[in-house]
Amino acid sequence: MAVVTIENVDIVFGDNKAQTLPLMDKGHSRDEIIGMTGDVVGVQNASIEVNEGEICVLMGLSGSGKSTLLRAVNGLNKIARGRCLVRDGDNMVDMAKCDDATLRHMRTHRVSMVFQSFALMPWLTVLENVAFGLEMQGMPKTERLIKAREQLKMVSLDQWADKKPDELSGGMRQRVGLARAFAMDTDVLLMDEPFSALDPLIRTQLQDELIELQRRLNKTIIFVSHDLDEALKIGTKIAIMESAKIIQEDTPEQIVLNPATEYVENFVAHTNPLNVLLGNSLMTPLSELAIQNDKVIMENGMWLELTDEKLTSVQNLEGEVPTVSWTPNMVLDNIPNNAIFIVPANIAMRDAVNIRYHSKHFMVLEENEKCVGILNDHNFYHALLGKHFGRDTNAA
Ligand SMILES: Nc1ncnc2c1ncn2[C@@H]1O[C@H](COP(=O)(O)OP(=O)(O)OP(=O)(O)O)[C@@H](O)[C@H]1O
């Protein structure tokens, strides 16, 4: 179910929209338009739908329009054309067109925002900061303090409730910001680079906490980041922006496997594929292996015996090689390192590399009990070197 629907949204900063919009339609670039009218195109023809429970990451270089688009979702930025709809029960409210009372209702009950700068009030305690938005919602004092304390506990800061924000580290303050946003219990959370001011270790920890909180609370989150690794880690969907436009919207894996343009490819080239790619997009499929009489010839004098594409055994000249069916969280220490692992086709690359680190050999991928391919060192190096995109034309 769509909770936020952005439809053909244009946002223009400046006083000459009547001139600027037709120039945009004629295909003039942002730089040309600044020169011609003095207006800055913040967002051009952006459309995106975010469903309940999704984390949609808006990703792109500085100035690409991410924050401008995000701020349209709670009506902070005026839309020149298009619609930005947010769910309110059974209705979708157009944030650009609704009256002030509706906008206030939406901002208090439906959409809340977490900023990079924490935006905590220094004169209030940590607990009072978390409770502040609840006061705006009209919740009685005792109730809101109980709720705020619960939220602080969720981000492991309940011991810090009575401190002032300046007594906390940056990471802790950002957790207070998260607790405050989650306390509001709005359906939609807008997060504008909330972790970018933090050092990498704290940042990773907060990303993990956000994923864990989201697992429990199932909010609809729009998250701005200029870091593709962060986007790939937390996003269920990523929209990449360049020069005010969304140039690709896809799942994390598809962004990495099929970058739409060189701009996206450049981001992807600097990411860590371990967190994103799955075995079946890295494997050498069965169809590309040498098969003779139901025997698949492998490296090191081994072969796979198949019956109707189902693996029956792995052999070498000395006889049968032991096999192990891998399951998530399996402890590998006691498994002999000459065993061949049989793994699900959608195994995460990180797990597959861990298995390869333990075992000496390639692994066999299965789907619906049929062998669909193998993963060997070549497949891993291929992915680690970022050669998985353009593989049709450029395969290494
Ligand atoms: N209030 C404003 N008035 C005029 N121009 C603005 C305003 N806000 C944003 N812009 C312009 O809109 C464009 C997009 O800015 P925006 O802040 O959305 O980019 P961003 O992708 O979020 O960048 P960053 O990662 O640096 O925050 C920029 O050219 C910026 O100068």
TrEMBL record:
<dbReference type="GO" id="GO:0006970">
    <property type="term" value="P:response to osmotic stress"/>
</dbReference>
<dbReference type="InterPro" id="IPR051921">
    <property type="entry name" value="ABC_osmolyte_uptake_ATP-bind"/>
</dbReference>
<feature type="domain" description="ABC transporter">
    <location>
        <begin position="21"/>
        <end position="268"/>
    </location>
</feature>
<protein>
    <submittedName>
        <fullName>ABC transporter ATP-binding protein</fullName>
    </submittedName>
</protein>
<keyword id="KW-0813">Transport</keyword>
<dbReference type="InterPro" id="IPR017871">
    <property type="entry name" value="ABC_transporter-like_CS"/>
</dbReference>
<dbReference type="GO" id="GO:0055052">
    <property type="term" value="C:ATP-binding cassette (ABC) transporter complex, substrate-binding subunit-containing"/>
</dbReference>
<dbReference type="InterPro" id="IPR022473">
    <property type="entry name" value="ABC_trnsptr_Choline_ATP-bd"/>
</dbReference>
<dbReference type="Pfam" id="PF00005">
    <property type="entry name" value="ABC_tran"/>
</dbReference>
<dbReference type="GO" id="GO:0005524">
    <property type="term" value="F:ATP binding"/>
</dbReference>
<dbReference type="GO" id="GO:0016887">
    <property type="term" value="F:ATP hydrolysis activity"/>
</dbReference>
<comment type="similarity">
    <text>Belongs to the ABC transporter superfamily.</text>
</comment>
<dbReference type="InterPro" id="IPR003439">
    <property type="entry name" value="ABC_transporter-like_ATP-bd"/>
</dbReference>
<dbReference type="InterPro" id="IPR003593">
    <property type="entry name" value="AAA+_ATPase"/>
</dbReference>
<dbReference type="InterPro" id="IPR027417">
    <property type="entry name" value="P-loop_NTPase"/>
</dbReference>
<keyword id="KW-0547">Nucleotide-binding</keyword>
<keyword id="KW-0067">ATP-binding</keyword>
<dbReference type="GO" id="GO:0015220">
    <property type="term" value="F:choline transmembrane transporter activity"/>
</dbReference>
